[in-house]
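In response to reviewer comment 3 from the previous cycle, which asked for concrete evidence that the modeling workflow produces usable outputs, we include below a single protein chain processed end to end. The sequence was submitted unchanged, and the resulting structure tokens are shown without manual editing.
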Amino acid sequence: MAAVLAALLSSCGGRDPSSGDTIAVSGSSTVFPIIERAIKSYSGTEQGRNVTVTLSEVGTTGGLRQFCQGAIPIANASRPISSTELKACADKNITFIELPLAFDALTVVVNARNDWASEITTKELGRTWSKQAEGKVKAWSQINIDWPNRPLHLCGPGSDSGTFDYFNEAINGGKANSRTDVDTSEDDNVIVSCVADEPNAMGYLGFGYFRANANRLKALAIAPPNGMAVAPSVASAQNGSYRPLSRPLFIYVNDQQMRANDVIRSFVGYTVGNGLRLVEEAGYIPLPADTYRLVESKLYRHVLGTSFGGDLPVGLTIDEALQRSFDQHKRPEFR
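The workflow returned the following structure tokens.
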């Protein structure tokens, strides 16, 4: 199917992918490892050998801000595009294709030497990370009375991060209800080091970063209201039992720029066509194998817009997220 898609895309006109062009990709640090592998793999193909793809991790919000200004043709996102960003794109007459690429089990982590915490409830997470906790919840014993009276050090994403948006929507009801006395960065590797270097630390980040640093970090199982604690894993994200911190990951592609430039078409087609392998290599949760064919179809049929209406849905299973993501195919013009 990837070869068929490449042929379809290359027949659409625009500049030749071998012409030595540069593509700029920016956005989510969560999605970064997937696209990093896509770039490396694509550069080894005949189509990609003369193409330079630059990749920046500025957070989902930062990337979509650039995208909706027309500054970049591709944005990585660890959440769906927001209503504010939709308006910004519309104001610049930017149309786009929303392509789900993977699934993530957003992971709450502690230092590997932490021997008292193995699971945490969503209520306890709210007690730890909400605005009300700012300057007040400073010890582990204030989260759970069975935990030691040790100082609490928090490490988390910055406010331009889609991981920040999603976590606070799921745990605190929105990003406005988030404490600010936290060491923050839009770079997940900084959060890894922050937790790994401090025995009393807690943080949250993308599942792929936890898997790549499992010898330095420990993941906490999450217990939703009236539910059993479930550890983040490929299986628990795929079967829907890891809630409410499972989420889809996306790339957004400027449709006008892609129609005008075969270099963009070629790279995006390669990334989606090899999505299953690239996602697995990055340590994230792939979509079902046959779903990537639907994503390819969405791409080459130029199915525009978002399926999420500017909302930030929380706790969707893979099936629920994909059902929403492909609702656009049901419109009469795509039947």
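The chain is about 35% helix and 20% strand. We consider this sufficient to address the reviewer's concern, and the full set will be provided in the supplementary archive.
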